[in-house]
Amino acid sequence: MPLRDEEIESATYIDRASILLPPGDNATVKAFALIVLNQPITDLNMLDRVWSNAAVKICADGGTNRLHAALDESTRSKYKPDFIAGDLDSLNADIRAYYEKELGVPVYYSPDQDSTDFGKCLLKLGELYPGERFPVVALGGTGGRVDQEFHSIHTLFVHEREAKEEDTADKKKREITLLSDDSLTFLVGPGTQKIYTPRSVLGPTCGIIPVSGPTVISTLGFTWDIEDWATSFGTQVSTSNAMEADEVVIKSDQTVLFTLEIRR
Prior knowledge:
The chain contains six helices and 15 strands.
């Protein structure tokens, strides 16, 4: 059956796109932490926007090399991370010396081989800012090796599960968004969600991926809207759809992965 008006009016509102808007056009953006992962940085305009909008800037091990390589001497000191963390097996010695010795950036070593550098940065973020629950944007969270992409998606689920298991009063989970030069990607939970999708920076292409298993979804605001549509790997999956509005609605009975193209 189609989405009812009362479902749309009471939908949970999700805004993960304001991080991409120029400062001054993003009044609704929440303070967030940016983690630079070990993927090439080629879109300097995107880097500048998310860096300017971020409250905390972090480099994950080899992500420090990528940040250093993307910038020239005239701009490098402007992009000073608040800290660097990881097992430091990828961080070049001369680049570590530049950030640690010349710019005074703290570098934290963790030998734990049961977590990725992404996970180590999330852990250190919680240790250094214990009273905060910053949303996290992982630049380089998709792209590159497929196994690393799957681990980034796994990390989204880990933090969703941990939020449910936490013995705290607010049960507030840490929102994590994966960002690459091409895509903005995040989890959308069960129920009806209205999602901010400004077409000035996103689209048109998008996909809704049933990463939790067989799922039934309904949508509004897409070129090809669907109603009570069963989706799963091995049957049918909603990819290469397109957005027709600056807000779209997704209703699902399981958590899904929503991925949106970055507009060029």
